[in-house]
């Protein structure tokens, strides 16, 4: 092997190792956060709210710290965010806290976790907190959730159960489109969903749909049926035409 190829190979090994180490750190951070912090803090993003919370949700903690500590980049993470977590969790005080007076009245100053978690573990936890509780990721998730919530209940069922892997709404894929499915009787549609499609869709004999008898409740089947039926009543969208075409 030439010296150049040897050099490139060593660089690739180094980069792969760094990537694996980074992923391992995040995985370890997630486990440690659950073990060391979940008893008091809600770790979900976005979090549920409870009347008697013993500590603020972790998402709120991280967003608050990033804002008030003016964390802008990875250098700030290393210089400000991680050292603060390491120090405050072991040696908390009102003077060090970034909480407002109302929050301090509600939650109080957290008790020291000295003996429960080490400074080295807190470094790994802080790395994970910084990465996982990302405001841009959160905003995108909220936008996606809002878009999903705006869908009809039937389309929500279709999307959340992977139906669009084989079916599209307008065009045939591996299986027939939902618009074409809507042309069949309600009885046939319900039969195929519950018992599978073997021998029932002639043009799709090469790909049989499995039975989903235990996948959907009776109520969900009714919602699905009504959604599919509604597609048969909506005029299919027409292809766009150029202004120059008569």
TrEMBL record:
<keyword id="KW-0479">Metal-binding</keyword>
<feature type="domain" description="Cytochrome c">
    <location>
        <begin position="24"/>
        <end position="133"/>
    </location>
</feature>
<keyword id="KW-0349">Heme</keyword>
<dbReference type="GO" id="GO:0046872">
    <property type="term" value="F:metal ion binding"/>
</dbReference>
<dbReference type="InterPro" id="IPR036909">
    <property type="entry name" value="Cyt_c-like_dom_sf"/>
</dbReference>
<dbReference type="GO" id="GO:0009055">
    <property type="term" value="F:electron transfer activity"/>
</dbReference>
<dbReference type="InterPro" id="IPR009056">
    <property type="entry name" value="Cyt_c-like_dom"/>
</dbReference>
<dbReference type="GO" id="GO:0020037">
    <property type="term" value="F:heme binding"/>
</dbReference>
<dbReference type="Pfam" id="PF13442">
    <property type="entry name" value="Cytochrome_CBB3"/>
</dbReference>
<keyword id="KW-0408">Iron</keyword>
<dbReference type="InterPro" id="IPR050597">
    <property type="entry name" value="Cytochrome_c_Oxidase_Subunit"/>
</dbReference>
<protein>
    <submittedName>
        <fullName>C-type cytochrome</fullName>
    </submittedName>
</protein>
<feature type="domain" description="Cytochrome c">
    <location>
        <begin position="149"/>
        <end position="232"/>
    </location>
</feature>
């Amino acid at each position: 092997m030439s010296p150049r190829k040897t050099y490139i190979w060593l660089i690739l090994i180094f980069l792969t190792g760094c990537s694996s180490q980074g992923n391992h750190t995040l995985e370890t951070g997630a486990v440690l956060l659950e073990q060391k912090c979940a008893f008091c803090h809600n770790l979900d993003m976005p979090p549920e709210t409870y009347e008697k919370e013993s500590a603020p949700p972790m998402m709120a903690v991280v967003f608050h710290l990033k804002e008030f500590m003016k964390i802008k980049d990875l250098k700030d993470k290393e210089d400000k965010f991680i050292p603060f977590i390491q120090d405050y969790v072991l040696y908390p005080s009102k003077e060090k806290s970034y909480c407002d007076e109302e929050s301090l009245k509600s939650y109080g100053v957290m008790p020291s976790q000295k003996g429960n978690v080490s400074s080295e573990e807190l470094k790994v936890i802080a790395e994970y907190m910084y990465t996982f509780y990302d405001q841009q990721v959160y905003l995108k998730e909220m936008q996606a959730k809002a878009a999903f919530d705006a869908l009809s209940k039937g389309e929500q069922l279709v999307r959340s159960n992977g139906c669009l892997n084989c079916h599209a709404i307008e065009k045939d894929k591996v299986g027939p489109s939902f618009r074409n499915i809507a042309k069949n009787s309600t009885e046939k549609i319900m039969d195929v969903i519950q018992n599978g499609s073997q021998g029932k869709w002639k043009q799709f004999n090469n790909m049989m749909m499995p039975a989903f008898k235990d996948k959907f409740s009776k109520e969900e089947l009714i919602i699905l049926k009504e959604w599919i039926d509604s597609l048969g009543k909506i005029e299919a969208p027409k292809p766009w035409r150029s202004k120059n075409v008569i």
